Amino acid sequence: MSLKVKDINEQTRWQDLHMGLHVYEPATSKTFDTGEWRTNTPVLDMEKCRQCLLCVPYCPDSSIPVKDGKRGEFDLGHCKGCGICVSACPFGAITMKEGK
User: Fold this and answer.
1) 92 by DSSP, 3-state: which?
2) Among 21, 20, 16, CA closest to 2
3) Hey, CA dihedral for 92, 61, 5, 3, is it positive or negative?
4) Which of 1, 35, 55, 77 could be cross-linked to 85 through a Cys-Cys bond (beta carbons 3.0 to 4.6 Å apart)?
5) Could you tell me what percent of the chain has a pLDDT over 90?
6) What pLDDT is attached to residue 14?
7) Which sequence ranges form a coiled-coil region, renumbered to this chain (predicted)?
8) Residues contacting residue 43 through CB under 8 Å, at least 6 positions apart
9) SS3 letters for 19-88?
10) CA 33 to chain centre
11) What's the rounded Cα separation, in Å, for the pair 29 and 17?
C-alpha cells in the first residue's frame, strides 16, 4: 500500500507508513534548508580573514562557498551552527553569535 502524505493522519497504521532513514534520490540536501536548526550563527570578520581557506574543508555542511580562490559569506541556509569553523580559523576571523 502506498500512501500519499496528504492521506496520512492519526488513524494511519504504522505498518502502512514508509520505512524511515532511506534516501530515495541523490543530492536532495542541496534543496533542503537545514539552517533552520541553527541556534548559533557564525560571523566572519573580513578585516581578520586572510583567505587561507582552512575553514572550508572543516565545515561539515559545505556552508563556506569559495569563488575564484576566495571564500564568501556563510551559506546560512545550510549552516547548522556547529562552530567547527571557529576552531579551524587560525586568525580568529570567525566568531559565533547566539541566535539566527
Assistant:
1) coil
2) 16
3) negative
4) 55
5) 50
6) 78
7) none
8) 94, 95, 96, 97
9) CCCCCCCCCHHHHCCCHHHCCEEEEECCCCCCCCCCHHHHCCCCCCCEECCEECCCCCCCCCCCCHHHHH
10) 7
11) 22
* DSSP line for 2-16: ---GGG--TT--GGG
The residues that bridge with 42 in the sheet, in sequence order, are 96
- CATH of region 5-98: 3.30.70.20
pTM over 0.70: no
How many residues would you count in the chain? 100
* Range of lowest pLDDT (32-36, 46-50, 59-63): 32-36
pLDDT band at 47 (very low <50, low <70, confident <90, very high): very high
74 and 64 Cβ atoms separated by less than 8 Å: yes
Residue 16 vs residues 6, 30, 89: alpha-carbon distances, Å? 14, 29, 49
Q: Which three cell numbers stand for residue 76?
A: 546560512
